[in-house]
Specification:
single chain; 222 residues; alpha+beta; Protein Transport Mog1p, Chain A; six-stranded antiparallel beta sheet; 5 helices; globular
C-alpha cells in the first residue's frame, strides 16, 4: 500500500509540475501521452499567418489624341500671332478661303500611290491661310491634322529622299524644303513637322517667321 500511494503521489506531482510549465514555457508529453495537434479545436498553438492577397494595380489611362484648334487665330499664343500674322487677311475668299477665322476641314482619303505631300495634306483637319489679295505671292499657310505614326514615318522618309532637309526639333521630326520663286527674288519655304500623331505644315513665301513650329508645339503640348 505504501508503494502504491507513493507512486500515485509522484504521478499527481508530475502532472501538477507539467501544468505549471505549460502555463509558462510549455511541457512535452510524457510516455504514452498524445502530442496536441495545433490544428485541432481548442489548441493553444499559434496559427500560421494567412498570406495577404496581391494588390491589383490601378488601370493606366491611355492618353487620347492631342486636341487641335478649331479656329485659325488659336494656333499660337496671342503675342506670337500678332508678331507673325499681324493684320494679314485670314482665309480670303479670293484664294478659296471661307472668309472667316474658322479653318476646320474634313480629312480625306489620299489617292492610290499618293506622294508624301498628298498623304500629309489629306490628313488636314485645320487649314489656315494669311494672304493679302493685293499681294502677288506673299503669304503663309498653316495646316494641321492627325496622322498615324505608321503612316507618317514612311511619308517623312520619302520627303528626305525627295530633297527635304530633315532634323529633330521640338520633340518631333521636321522636313523642310526651300526653293526660289521664279518671278521674284524671294524664297518659298515648305516645312512638314510631325510629333506623335500630329502633323503640321507651314508653307510661307516672303513672310519671315521666328520658330513658328516651336510656338505651335507649345500651344498644343504646353
Amino acid at each position: 500500500m505504501r508503494g502504491t500511494t507513493a507512486k500515485r503521489t509522484a504521478t499527481i506531482t508530475g502532472a501538477t509540475a507539467c501544468l505549471v510549465l505549460a502555463l509558462t514555457a510549455g511541457c512535452s508529453s510524457g510516455p504514452g501521452e498524445a502530442t496536441p495537434d495545433p490544428s485541432s479545436p481548442g489548441s493553444s498553438a499559434p496559427s500560421s499567418p494567412t498570406p495577404s492577397g496581391t494588390a491589383t494595380p490601378a488601370p493606366t489611362e491611355t492618353p487620347g489624341p492631342i486636341a487641335l484648334p478649331t479656329d485659325c487665330t488659336d494656333v499660337v499664343d496671342q503675342a506670337t500671332y500678332a508678331a507673325t500674322f499681324g493684320d494679314s487677311p485670314l482665309n480670303p475668299v479670293e484664294f478659296g478661303g471661307s472668309g472667316t477665322t474658322s479653318g476646320v476641314v474634313t480629312p480625306t482619303e489620299p489617292p492610290a500611290g499618293a506622294s508624301a505631300v498628298q498623304i500629309v495634306r489629306a490628313a488636314n483637319e485645320l487649314s489656315c491661310l494669311w494672304r493679302d489679295p493685293r499681294a502677288d505671292i506673299s503669304g503663309i499657310g498653316v495646316d494641321m491634322g492627325h496622322l498615324d505614326p505608321a503612316v507618317s514615318g514612311p511619308a517623312f522618309d520619302s520627303l528626305a529622299s525627295a530633297g527635304f532637309t530633315c532634323t529633330t526639333v521640338h520633340e518631333g521630326r521636321s522636313c523642310q524644303l526651300v526653293t526660289p520663286e521664279q518671278q521674284y527674288p524671294v524664297d518659298r519655304t515648305q516645312t512638314f513637322w510631325v510629333r506623335d500623331d500630329v502633323v503640321v505644315t507651314v508653307d510661307q513665301t516672303n513672310v519671315p517667321t521666328d520658330d513658328l513650329i516651336g510656338s505651335i508645339a507649345t500651344r498644343l503640348w504646353g
